[in-house]
Each structure stands twice: as structure tokens, then as C-alpha cells.
Amino acid sequence: MRWYTTLLYGLLWCIARLPMRLFHALGAALGWLFWVTNDRKRRVIEANLALVRPDLDGRARRRLARDCVRECGIALVEAFGIWTNAQRTLARVREVRGEALFDAALAARKGLILCAPHLGSWEVANYWIGARTPFATFYTQPGRAQVEALLRRLREGGASIQFPIDDAGVRRVYRHVSGGGVVSIMPDHVPRSGGVIVPFFGVPALTMTLLPRLARRTGAKVLMLFVERLPKARGFRIHFREPPAALTDADPLAACSALNAAVEGCVRDAFAQYQWNYKRFKARPGSGLPDDAYIAAGVRT
Prior knowledge:
301 residues, seven-stranded mixed sheet
């Protein structure tokens, strides 16, 4: 790293030693700012909730939107208290539900795919898994080399291997998992290619086929994984659970429907902590999906 990147790393290292309660308070304040300024994140969240929670009346949906915006702010700030501070982060894990599933999958040595949606404190999961086994993730390479170097240094203790999101990276992931390795994949990115349209919370959504296809072809075990942020900065609760058997169905529509159903089940346990500020239902060229919900909310990009 260059000297200025090293200096920034040192500053962030010092900041990470502040109390986690402070990070959550600052994050809640940031969420409040997003709300009162009608920030883009608020508008995307409200558009998404209008789609996935039509059962709620206007007042109830507004309350839920405020909770989601608040958790969005906390998630953004919280990372600065997690990066470089693996020891404190792991000490704040209060409970691990389904840990026996994870241990059994590792012991089988047949490959493990962790299906980890953008829910709760996913940076915590990187440290918890990394403390127990080497594992791989996909990553989008930043445009600047020093930014990439800084992020890698900040996240030391997490993923051991990072594969680029391209054809070569996908081939390497297949080899890694086929050899008994562990990989963590976030299943709720809108794919740029190779996706199918299946419901997510009852709304048509372009969904990746990579994860079900990887599981079917390698025979690896698949586990859902998310980290719930406990209230009042009391720590974290890690969840592992089995996905539906249909996730490895040869029919991509059936497999991806099962994948989205599994993600939904996780989200329902910590609904406001999901990354609802992401345009999950956006269209890609040729997908056939409209972008009307976001355009109507004033979010065009």
C-alpha cells in the first residue's frame, strides 16, 4: 500500500476501537438524515415496500420504511467498527443457531456453498467463517488499486480467497467447490446475464442461476447464512439453516424459486435489516421486466 493508504488504514484501525454502541448511534442518526432529506435510499426502500408489503396500510408501511432506513444507516456505519477488529467482533456473537449443520458440512469435505443474502451484519459472518475454515467469495474489483488494497487489508481475517465476478472467476469457483472448498455467495444480486425471472416476495425478480447450478453440478452442501443484529448494540446472532431441496432442481425456474423462497424465509426473521435500499426488482436489458416502480418513485439510476 502507498503511504497515504497506510495512513488511512491506521486511522480506520483507531476508529474501529470505539464502542460499538457509538457506531450504532451514529448509524441511526445517518438513517434519520436519509429519511428527513428524502434521500435516494429512502425512495428505493419505499418503492420496494410498496411492492412486497401491499398488505400494509399507508401508516404501517411508513413505520416499517422508517425502520428499514434506520437499519440501512446502521449497516453502513457499523462496518467501520467491525473491520480490523475481528477479536471484538467474534466476542460479540451471542448465539449461533444451526451451528451443527455447518460443522457437519465441513466434516463431510464435499464442498459447502453458503447462501448469504444482504441481510443483517454480513461482515460479521466473514470473520466467523474465516476463524473456522478457509473460504472464498466473489468480489467486484474496485477501479483504483489502492482502494482494493485498503479493502483487502481492512477485511483481513475474512475470506481467504476472492474470485472476480467474470467467467474465469466462475470456473475457479467450480474447481474450488468440487475440491471440497467453501464459498460464500450473495444470492440476491440482480445478475447481468444468465438469470431467470421468478417471484421474490410475490414480485417478479431477475434471479441468479449460478448458485443452484453450482450446487447441482458439484454436489456440494448448501446452507443459508445470515447474521442478525441484536437490538441496543447487544451483539449478533448467526443463523444457519437448510434451504428447500428444490434448490438443486434441474429446472432453473424451480431451483431459483426455491432459492428466493429460502432468502425470503431468512428476511422474514429480520425484515428491517434486509438491504431494501437495493433495487432488487430492477430490469436488465432484454429481461422483459419494467422499471416503473423505481421511476415512479423518482429513482432512475
